[in-house]
Write a structure and sequence with these properties.
Blueprint: E1 7-11, H1 16-30, E2 35-41, H2 52-70, E3 73-79, H3 88-101, E4 105-108, H4 116-131, E5 149-152, E6 167-170, H5 175-183, H6 186-196, H7 207-228, H8 230-237, H9 239-244, E7 248-253, H10 262-268
Parallel strand pairs: 1-2, 1-4, 2-3, 4-5
Antiparallel strand pairs: 5-7, 6-7
Helix pairs in contact: 1-5, 2-5, 3-4, 5-7
Length: about 280
């Protein structure tokens, strides 16, 4: 495995990567490790007022700005938001991306998720995991000799099975950076998502106030992860420390791709607590 591992996050929409794994992405960049964030869809469906054509251009710019916060590439593809299917076209695009970027670690959604686009991306990554090593599949790009480690982004879903917390990292020190990245997605955080949550009236006017608002907003979501996995945190960190941890990212290692040993887990997930992988 590469001593300076490369991270690829394949999310369904602009803002998925940093919302679910912005902490790990920020840690990688702090260590000067290559990071690429991808939105598989064009983001055209995510608004109550702006047109799809306007959103495609706007969200691509917002994503690029979010990546620039940590010095990472953020690419937005052209598959239709809200209509993504686990097709061969999507699978082959993902195979090409994995082969060309040559990541050591790929993060993506689980195949059990509330959003059909999330499920489709997760399914396509699962289907691509072995195929990246098969030369006659997508033959225009050289096949990899070994597939990367694939892990699932944190979520709180329980059916048909909850996320298995193979790896947990404390991201308290990265929360401000995550908020800065998310604040770049202005059409989403300050407009669409606030509209969906019926909290538009709480969005402040000033830029510094907006950043503080985002920190509070994302903190509320991320704090739920630590609460959900409190038993695991106590088991790994002891009763006192385990109960004090507020902000985490938790990942499940996919069984469909390369299986890391403990040393590889420590390399791929800096600052990870004792893992179960």
């Amino acid at each position: 495995m590469n001593d300076n591992p490369r991270l690829l996050i394949l999310g369904a929409h602009p803002d998925d990567a940093e919302f679910h794994a912005g902490g790990l992405a920020a840690i990688y960049r702090h260590l000067d490790r290559p990071v690429k964030l991808v939105s598989v869809t064009d983001g055209a469906a995510g608004h109550h007022e702006r047109s799809p054509a306007e959103l495609i251009s706007l969200r691509r710019k917002e994503a690029a700005a979010a990546g620039a916060v940590i010095g990472a590439t953020y690419e937005t593809w052209d598959f239709p938001d809200g209509s993504l299917e686990p097709s061969l076209d999507v699978r082959h695009r993902i195979i090409r991306e994995i082969r060309e970027f040559q990541p050591d670690l790929v993060l993506t959604h689980r195949t059990c998720d509330y959003h059909p686009d999330h499920r489709s991306v997760g399914q396509c990554v699962q289907d691509a995991s072995y195929m990246v090593t098969v030369p006659h599949v997508v033959p225009d790009v050289p096949a990899l000799r070994k597939d990367p480690v694939v892990a699932y982004l944190p979520d709180l879903f329980t059916r048909p099975a909850p996320l298995r917390t193979d790896v947990i990292i404390d991201i308290a020190k990265q929360m401000r950076t995550i908020a800065k990245m998310l604040a770049c997605h202005r059409s989403q955080v300050f407009e669409w998502l606030a509209y969906e949550a019926d909290i538009l009236q709480t969005i402040p006017d000033g830029e510094q106030e907006k950043l503080k608002w985002v920190q509070s907003w994302v903190g509320g979501y991320v704090r739920q992860r630590a609460d959900r996995y409190r038993r695991e945190l106590v088991a790994r960190c002891g009763d006192v420390n385990g109960r004090e941890i507020e902000f985490i990212e938790a990942f499940e290692i996919s069984e469909y791709a390369r299986q890391p040993d403990e040393a590889s887990v420590r390399l791929l997930f800096p600052n990870a607590m004792n893992s179960n992988a």
